[in-house]
Predict the structure of Peptide hydrolase.
Amino acid sequence: MRLPIAFSPIPVTIIVVLVYAALFVSLLYTHLVVPPSPSRVSTYPAVDGDVAWRDLQELSNGFHHFNTHRNDEIHNWLLHRIESILRKNKVEFDANRAETLIAHSPAPVVVFNDRTSNVSVSRDTSSTYFESTNIIVYIRGTDDENEDWWKAHKPYKGQGGVLVNAHYDSVSTGFGATDDGAGVVTVLQLIAHFTSEGNRPKRGIVALLNNGEEDFLNGAYAFAKHPLSQFPRSFLNLEGAGSGGRATLFRSTDAEVTKAYQKSPYPFGTVISADGFKRRLVRSGTDYQIFTSILDMRGLDVAFMGPRSNYHTVRDDTKHSSLNSLWHMLSSSLATMGALTSEDSFAFDKTEQGTETAGSEGVWFDLYGRTFAVFKLDALFGISVALLVAGPLSLIALHVTLSRIGKWYPFSRTQPLSYEDADDTLPGLPLDGFRGFFRPIVTMIISTAVVVALAFLLARVNPYVIYSHEYTVWTMMLTAFTAISWFCLRAADSTRPTALQRFYTLFWMYIISYILLVGVTILERNFDIAGTYFIVIYSAAMFLALLIAYCEFFFLPSKNSYAQFIAENEDAFGRADSTTSSRAIPPRSQHHSRSRERLNTSNDTENATETTSLLRDDHGTTSFAGYGGARGSRRASGQASSTLVPTAAQNDDDPYNSALGTFYPNEQPWSARLPSYLWMLQFLILCPIPVILTGQISLLLTYALHQTPADGNPVLQIYLFLAGLTFFLLTPLLPFLHRLHPHLPTLLLLISILSVLFNLLSFPFSESSRLKTYFVQYLDLDTGINHVGLTGVPKYIHDIASSVPSAADQDLDCHGLDLTHYSGLRTCRWPGLPPRSVPNSLLGLPESAPPALGYKDWLSVNVSRDPGHNTARFEVRGRNTRACRILFDRPISNFSVEGGEQDDNRFIPVGEKGSSQLRLWSRNWERGWNVSVEWKDSDQEEEARGMDGKVVCLWSDANQADAIPALEELWRFMPVWSTAVKGDDGLVEGSKRFAV
């Protein structure tokens, strides 16, 4: 009786196709479809998703960069919304908006309109001075001290609270619906929930809406200067690096704090994103790094990750996002904040010495966006070591046991035959136990080499095709690996069939996984790399599958018993010699000649070479005839037959089958008693869990990285990532691949060829996946000369720039290097349309006057030097701006701003190498800065030198179409497959030279 799950082509093909199809479809569905938002939330009655969506529409109704007037409007609107939320929840407070909104002290809620915190900080060879306009809401916890401790002006040493943060500024070319409007309205809803009746938190909450994140995380730096920054011990940072989809747990400081996110109804993320963030695979920064490095807090970074082609563009709006995406972030934030604020232990509090407690390095990942696994990296390391030790020892023990009882068939070429009345031992019975040992590793090398070669081919011929066709790239790699692997394995199986092919494939896969496991164990221990968890699970699955393969040999007769059985039934097998000549046992008197004949006949199949057709049957004919039958009796290798599988009558007449049982056609007769159903158990161990984990990682990394080449990231490493993940996705299929019906791999080969051609010939960008370019307009305020700088991918930037009317007849200069901080890109420059960022009315000029008439008044600079000293004083005032820079031809060693901040040893205004530029940000318009700087002479200089440089002011407000005509022209006329975003702090940079 044939089992419906026997290890034969039809059951294997059906089960493999169904399982892999189910896994791939379910993974894609989880990745692409955001869980729906509920119509009512009974658990959180004060939370209203529709109100949050309307707030998001208001917030993203215009560009609101820090250096825009719309930013001030959003600031005031947020204060009004917080006031209305508190009034609705009947929380008493004082509506004084001067500096701080303070309720009757001590109040359950205190709202700070921070207009006093200023910060000076250095970064590389640049320094920044920034003035805060943050909004801070303190929700007092039931266990918090019942006093306004922040007024004491001394370090806070009580129980710590929880910070939730989002920034309300956008970039100058994006409406900020997800970056970071969704985070802002989520914070508003958190305030509504935790100030409602019956939902007061146990630990206090600091809800921070910071301003200035988009330019060097200035808002978070300024918060660190506020007294309330001492209170939180843990945090939840809400961000956006895309324009929709699911909100992903981007990174986390430790396992303990990550367990709070585990409470989310739809958790989503993997620790691999945190590892990738550390290695700058995604060129973005968030406030997370300030909270961890400056404030020593432990927390989480939750963000939208894609599509990145909409990130920082005009498509970062509600039209390209959804209420479902907003609710995904909001629901996870409610659950996470609920867990963090109800924490009973002192895990996040300071020690008695006042130092922060350290968490444990964590490993975390979701399963289908519903279940979330969190454990310590030490646990993963322990599992890795256990697998490294227990795996080989277990297999060695099984090998020794099987050898002792004579059932170790692998690597056994022959088994000696003997008769009771014989004087010597006869030549051995062929077992062919070594056959097929090298074919799995050769197949893996060939298939992997093909996929890697395709990666190099795409990187060479059409490198950016993954930008908009990431799934066709995946199709190419998956189908190529599967088809090539099948043809290699099937070719070998056709010429030299063996029952040990599945075992040897598992054997080689275990060796490879063991080598990988050694490497990842070192990474876990020495470098705290947690993203290798899927390799540990992959290795564990390989070990278990191979363990089962070892155990299968216990079902076989011993080699001696098998040989003795053959010897004792020589008459029966001898009479069957006409149909089983290759296996017949000769009479003892003729054993030498007949044994030699038998061995020669048995080796006929083995003598096939690599030139033998993979469709060849055992008689030299080229056909798939009969391929696809179930495990059956072995057909005589010397008899012609029209079918590969014997008929029932042939089975009955074959003495091997009647005595030994049935075995797969053309495989070793001793394999008849191998279980034909255990392959299913091995497949279920190898496939679902490793493929699910690797598949989720593959989709997440593709989503995060496939459009980063627009930022200058190299494309080859992305294709190599995909090639490596292809290996992990499909190697679980290899032990069973040779049993697939030939029609399926043939179809996959055809799909692979078509996808290769498509990927090589397709245009890489589209209207839905637009190539980002980076815009800055440079204006010399002394001469009135301006030029536009457009930075982008070198291959396409000239075509994009030449499509603009003002640049069409110009001799474009596209030979210079990138003028912004994006490496790997190139900048085209041309004279642009004159900017109008400062209205003529503000300068006292007629509206019809050319803008060039007022350029000299856009910026006023007075520089004076103290005689005999390397110090100078700058008086800088820009019109219609609150952001300027001072660029120095030689680095300064110190600076101070009149009315600036007090000393704080956590912040170094100027680094060891000095600063070549000073960025100035003011909370007020038209006020300007009075700055004193000092510099050092080099050791070679005997006399004090002066200082040269230029002062640059920035204009970033594109809400009025006529303010920056060059940008509007670019948006209007550039190809539909491209877009322009801000290339630096300002869209327009106006400069004047100075020398003292």
The chain has 28 helices and 26 strands. Residues 95-100, 575-652 have pLDDT under 50 and may be disordered. Residues 770-996 form one domain. The chain has four domains: 34-345+355-359, 381-556+678-768, 559-606+629-673, 770-996.
